[in-house]
Amino acid sequence: MVRGLHVPLVTPFDEDGAVDLAALERLAGEVLADGADGLVALATTAEASSLDERERDAVVEVCARVSADRGAALMVGAGTNDTRTTIARHEALAAIEGVTASLAVVPYYVRPSEAAIVAHFQAVAARSPVPIVLYNIPYRTGAALGAAALLELAGTDGIVGVKQAVNGVDADTLRLLADAPTDFAVLCGDDAFILPLLLMGAGGAIAASAHLCTERFAALVAAAGAGRVDEAREHAEALLALVLALFSEPSPAVLKAMLHDAGRIATPALRMPLQAASEAGLARARRSAPSRSSARAPARAR
Length: 302
Hints:
Helix content is 43%, strand content 12%. It has twelve helices and eight strands. The longest helix has 18 residues, at 53-70.
């Protein structure tokens, strides 16, 4: 079962605009060393839609190598808004050693019906060489999967979880958490709601914000999973302002600005049509970052 904290890595670019594979490898190693359970390559945070096939392959190769070296999980974003292309990208994962799952987004832009989305994922699952984690993010796709559809897919062979990113804890999410099979992982995809979902039974999180303060995000997930609610709440409260600051501008602009500010990537650049973060956005994130005090700081009395 997919569990724990997974970091969807950014794609660093060098001064010439090329993918900085050395920086990507460092980032991957850093977040795993600091407590992440796995990596996600080619997620939204990676600006995957702006990478060509050669760049996509190189990013996955780096992430696969680092994951294998550290015995970590690796998901690869392989979903598109076309079923044939999505199947082809999944089939290609068979050639990559160490991929533990795909991350497959709900088809975007074309806005298929919910029944058509279910059929799409069932067709992909029938051909995929790796388990599939669905990515339900209506904010970006224009189409959502409700609880009934998600529960139907949860019973489909080869579909092992969902990254649930509906900008809240809604009734569909609660029903999913209550009724999903025990071997189906619900992963929080909205960084501000990690703790509530974990306390309601989610198995972990895919959290872009966890490039920063990775130890505290890992400690939050671990504490919630162990039922140490006060400790988990302490971490969640400490991280909330940073999370909100990182998403105050189109992601991953502020995140890349913070990584560059810390000397972890060579430039804060994004590929157009995205733009680099504003000075105000970076300043807000700097102010919001908690100190690097112990990730296991005791919870205060309530």
